[in-house]
Amino acid sequence: MNAPTAALVAPRPERLRLVGQRRQILSVMHQRLMLGMLVYAGVIALVALRILYLAAFGDHAGRQAGMASLVPPRGDIVDRDGHPLAQTIDAWTIGLHPNKVIGDKLELARKLAALMPERDVIAYLKMLRSGKSFFYLRRRASPRLVEAVNALGEPGLALDREPDRLYPQTSLAAHVIGYTDVDGHGVAGIERAFDDRLSNPATRGQPLQLSISSRVQQALEHELLAAMERFSAIGAAGVILDIQTGEILAMTSLPQLNPNAAGQGSPEARFNRAALGVYELGSTFKPFTVAMAMDSGIIESFGKMYPCPRSLTVGNRSISDTHPFGRPCSVAEIMKESSNIGTAQIAAQVGAERQKAFLRKMGFLSPVAVELKERGRTLSPGSNWGEVATMTVGYGHGIAVTPLHLATGYATLFNGGIYRPPTLLKVDARRPAAKGRRVFTADTSYKMRALLRLVVTQGTGKKADAPGYRVGGKTGTAEKPVAGGYSSTRVVTSFAGVFPMDEPRYAMVVMLDEPQPTAETYGFRTAGWNAAPIMSQTVSRIAPMLGVIPDKRREPDLSEVLPYLHEDAEN
Amino acid sequence: MSVRSFHSVFMASVVAGAALGCYLVSLRVASERAALEQVETQILMAQRDVRLLSTEIGTRARLSQLERWNVRVLALSAPSADQILGDRFQLARLISPERKPAIEAPVILASAPADAKQAPLGEGQAAAPAQPQAQLLHEAGLKLPEMRPAPSEKARPLPLAPAKVPQVRAAEPRAIAATVAKPAESRPADKKAGEKPPRAAMGAMTKPVRTAKVDPLAPIPAGPSTDKASRTDP
Asked: Any idea which residues of A carry the catalytic annotation?
């Protein structure tokens, strides 16, 4: 740098030249040293700056990341009061890494077989010698078992926690809630229908609130189960609906299913009879036929008379009654004694087209419009809908719907005539009720109250009455179709009702599949003997919870029907 | 001169001090934030524990379990329509107005001393004026034992009360009467065993003038004559 250039000065003597060279070398060394120092200082400065930055803005060492909030791996499902129906918990799993096992394998196999007896020693030994890298020994192990396994002290045994779906109420509303597979994906019920909503990180923090009420559900399940056992039925189903909003307060299907171990349940148990199973529900259809006729102007008063012979032959089919009149009878009597012959004539007057239109408006010709994916396709005469079919459909044969359809139909009939699709999600300010469509006139809806109350006070449904709660409804006994006709011993009995009848609020359908006669039913297997009492017992349990105050002095106005009951009809 | 030469040192130390101050502030902030985060984490952990425990409680107290207990042990059933009342008027209807036999007794109590005074005036019996004042003074305190003659009088209101009162009420007056009657009978027997024989005799006849015979708790002197008779005899 400071070295003088050769051109400016005279050539120097040798000694001086040497000196100049030394100085040049020195200066280069200085330059390099300086550069090195700058680089060093720069690095130091970088480190210092980084430290300062971290000190000012960095996180501290002990911070626990990953606990930002308490969002479960899968959203909770709660009932309408907020009680959990499905939750995700951290469960213990016990795994086995055969390659990492260091102890005596036979000894370990013995100990494992003692602790977890679902496999024997040989199976464990095979696993240990298989050379594979991993086996699940037990998922959702109890803490006590985990402790015992841990005490074995074998590094090849892996104890882990993984999220697991727990249904704290076990079998309660199992068919509504559904269940998940081992990987936590919903495969049935609400778990399946709302799988995205429950697993999406954005929405799963908020529990999914159903319209189901645990207590009502429990009451219904208990009473149905008791009846199912008492009458040795192969199955049962029940639905309770809020008729104003269409909310399903309870829906059950028996035999029971434990969603915590859904795999253990039989296919029969996993089948949802309430929403997926379709049944010919028999006489419970008759109120619809009468309401259709009233709406069409055919019946203007319950005093209208129809000839009721002991047997009616239409086409190649003969219709009979369990309580044959053998004389002209009024509409009130037809309903009270559940006369097929009378109802068939009313249905014939309504006509196939009108009947179809009404049924379509009530949603009876399509799968029920509920959130579940398990929805049964209804069966109807289809293209065969002639006069005979119209008559049989009029009293509930030749058409098969789900119990949920029937409950929706009763809700439609008694809430003033407006169809609303049933829903399993709670209806409140955030989620208003679905828009309805009018099916029956309000006047028809009002008049039907007296008719169905009459069935319970004086007709076939006497055992359905819960004192003070003004239950109204209709029994239905339908023979099950078997190869080549109908079976007389295999029946489906049902009761569809509404309470309190003077101001209807809740519709309820109960159904027993193949109940057997018992001594206390005097050998009968009709709905009045086995399905109707379920209604009575359930209503007297749930009505106080639902805020229906019992009052023995209140009754719907029966003056529309009482005058049309003839003496000899009352026995 | 010397000060100027140290100028840069001062500047450097001031800057270093300021930097240190800033650093300390930020350190403080960071540690506060860390503490806050720790608390938040603790809250979350606590919430998780709460959730876990409530899950466990909910599972153990599941409705089907409660139902099972109810079926096996408690046997509670749904209330019948008669057990549920709509409003307070229905509640009030369940209770019939109360008779007042119990209230009449205190009234007697108040009138008893007055009766003792007036009786001599009104009826002018011979024995009445003879009562010394001392007797009246005695009465204020411990007259209960003197109830002995009362049973005959007591018997009168008792049959009356149950007869008038509806059956449900009958238990009450009887109970009251029993409590009244008992001290009256038992006290003389237990306490003053020594005095018993004379008093029993007195019950039938009359003798001692010393002790007061007016019973403040005695029933109404419906027939004042009996009362007087016992008192005036001495």
From this structure: 283
C-beta separation of A285 from A347 below 8 A: no
Sequence-ordered list of residues with C-beta below 8 angstroms from that of A153, at least 6 positions apart, any chain: none
Per-residue pLDDT of chain A (571 residues; tens, 9 = 90+): 455 555 666 666 777 788 888 999 999 999 999 999 999 999 999 999 998 888 767 665 655 555 556 778 888 899 999 888 988 888 888 888 888 888 888 888 888 888 888 888 888 888 888 888 888 888 878 888 899 988 888 888 888 888 888 888 888 888 999 888 888 888 888 999 999 988 888 888 888 999 999 999 999 999 999 999 999 899 999 999 999 999 999 999 988 888 888 777 788 888 888 888 888 888 899 999 999 999 888 888 888 888 888 888 887 778 888 888 888 888 888 888 888 888 998 998 888 888 989 999 888 888 988 888 888 888 888 888 888 888 888 888 888 999 999 999 999 999 988 999 999 999 888 888 888 899 999 998 998 888 889 888 888 888 888 888 889 999 988 888 877 777 778 889 999 999 888 889 999 999 999 888 887 878 788 888 888 999 999 999 999 889 888 888 888 888 878 888 876 544 4
Minimal CA separation from B51 to chain A, in Å: 9
Contact B44 A69 (CB under 8 A): yes
Residues of chain B with Cβ-Cβ distance to A172 below 8 Å are 62-64
- A93, two tokens: 């799993």
3-state secondary structure A475-495: EEEEEEEECCEEEEEEEEEEE
Residues 5-64 of A with CB under 8 A from B: 52, 55-56, 58-60, 62-64
Contact: A215, B23; criterion CB under 8 Å? no
Which residues does chain A have within 8 Å of residue B58's beta carbon, measured at their own beta carbons? 83-84, 168-169
Whether the upstream peptide bond of residue A500 has omega within 30° of 0, thus cis, is yes
CA distance A477 to B206: 90
Q: What are the chain A neighbours of B48 within 8 Å (beta carbons)?
A: 70
Contact indicator for A511, A531 with CB cutoff of 8 Å: yes
Q: Which residues in chain B have their CB less than 8 angstroms from residue A207's CB?
A: none
Listed in sequence order, the residues at least 6 apart from B197 whose beta carbon sits closer than 8 Å to its beta carbon are none
What distance in Å separates residue A500's CA from the closest CA in chain B?
Answer: 13
Residue A494's φ and ψ, nearest 5 degrees, are -145, 160
H or E element at residue A96: strand A84-96
CA atoms within 13 A on the CB side of A409: 30
Q: Which of A60, A172, A552 sits opposite B64 (nearest CB)?
A: A172
Whether the Cβ atoms of residue A396 and residue A476 lie closer than 8 Å to each other: yes
| Count of A-B CB contacts under 8 Å | 83
Q: What is the ipTM of this complex?
A: 0.73
Selecting from A166, A172, A537 the residue whose C-beta is nearest the C-beta of B63 gives: A172
Q: Using DSSP, how many helices (H) and how many strands (E) does chain B show?
A: 12, 0
Nearest chain A residue to B25, by CA: A56
A242: which strand partners?
A506
Give the β-pairing of A472-482 and A135-141: unpaired
Which DSSP helix (H) or strand (E) runs through B90?
helix B88-93
Q: Answer whether A58 sits within 8 Å of B51, measured CB to CB.
A: no
Interface of B with A (CB under 8 A): 23, 26-27, 30-31, 33-34, 37-38, 41, 44-45, 47-48, 51-52, 55, 58-59, 62-64, 67, 78-82, 84, 86
pTM: 0.70
CA distance A421 to chain B (A): 29
Give yes or no for A550 touching B (CB within 8 A): yes
The two three-digit tokens of residue B77, written as one number = 């059933």
- How far apart CA B234 and CA B229 sit, in angstroms, is 9
Q: At what angle do helices B224-232 and B101-123 cross, to 10 degrees?
A: 60
